[in-house]
Amino acid sequence: MSRNRVLVILAAACMIVAACTSSAGAAPTSVAGGSAAPGGVVVGTSSTPNFGIVLSGPNGMTLYTHAGDSATASTCDGSCATAWPPLAATSQPVAGSGVTGSLGTLKRSDGSIQVTYAGMPLYYWQGDTKAGDVTGNGVEGFSVATVAGGGSAPNPAAPAPSSPTKYGY
Where exactly are the structural domains of the chain? Predict the structure, then answer.
């Protein structure tokens, strides 16, 4: 291979790497609800009118906790995990600006690694469509994960999903 060809390939590879690692408004590559960031999944915060400062994933979407979980186990598998994708990780999660609690991980029953906050596993909600949405609070025992604690109190009066085909777990 000629020297010029090697330099062109090397320059192209550097440009691709630079584009993939740029943080100028682009969300990191997601992997099963998580992110592949060099130092681990970054858990950040966002402000909401009803819940104050809440945790958000690398994509800016609100994170939730589940009342049935513990620090050592997630109870949300199968179709539950489809409706509530776990925040997955491949290494120790990283606290973004404003995250004051303890981040960790646990091994799920399927062998994947899930990010925890204050000992509680973290999830996204399929019903949230944009950053800042908090439509899953109180649904099926899930609560918005707040910086002040693992999650806000679920609203017991909140209706369960009405369409079993949409959420059906």
Answer: 27-144
- Residue that has been written with the tokens 């777990």 in this structure: 169
Instruction: Provide the 3-class DSSP secondary structure of residue 13.
Output: helix
| pLDDT digits (tens), the chain, 169 positions | 555 554 445 444 434 333 333 332 222 222 334 444 456 899 999 999 999 999 999 999 999 999 999 988 999 999 999 999 999 999 999 999 999 989 999 999 999 999 999 999 999 999 999 999 999 999 999 999 999 765 554 443 333 333 333 444 4
Cβ neighbors of 153 (< 8 A, separation 6 or more) are: 143
Integer CA distances (angstroms), 142 to 3, 122, 135, in order = 58, 10, 10
- The letter for the amino acid at 41 is V
Q: Would you say the C-alpha torsion 147, 73, 66, 115 has a positive or negative sign?
A: positive
d(Cα 73, Cα 94) in Å, to the nearest integer?
21
Tell me if 42 sits within 8 A of 29, measured CB to CB: no
Q: How far is CA 150 from CA 16, 18, 73, 110, 147, in A?
A: 38, 35, 15, 23, 7
How far apart CA 152 and CA 165 sit, in angstroms, is 27
If one counts every other C-beta atom within 10 angstroms of the C-beta of residue 140, the result is: 19
DSSP type of residue 27: P
